[in-house]
Amino acid sequence: DVQLVESGGGSVQAGGSLRLSCVMSGRTDSRHCEGWVRQVSGKEREVVAAMENTGPPTYANSVKGRFTISKDNAKNTLFLDMNDLKPEDTAMYYCAADRCDTWPYPGYWGQGTQVTVS
Question: What is the mean pLDDT of the chain?
Fold first, then answer.
């Protein structure tokens, strides 16, 4: 089983930065991907960034050049560094993980952390 616990959300002014963290336990047996998904009420969820251990990360066009996904393997913690934040980045952000072939609909989610940009 996979368990995910996020932290690091909050309120920030446009142009500011935030770092989200996700402590992860467990993994799937086959090719395993991890990433961040955001959700705005009434809108379709968006995969912001995702990565597999053996490959480069992928990003949504809306965040390229501003967001960076990374992982500390020793601490099994996934990060999302968000720079030059914009009001349209306001959303609930979820850490997610599952076999790579399940994306963009992974089966394991954290509880979410709210990011508000004004």
Answer: 93
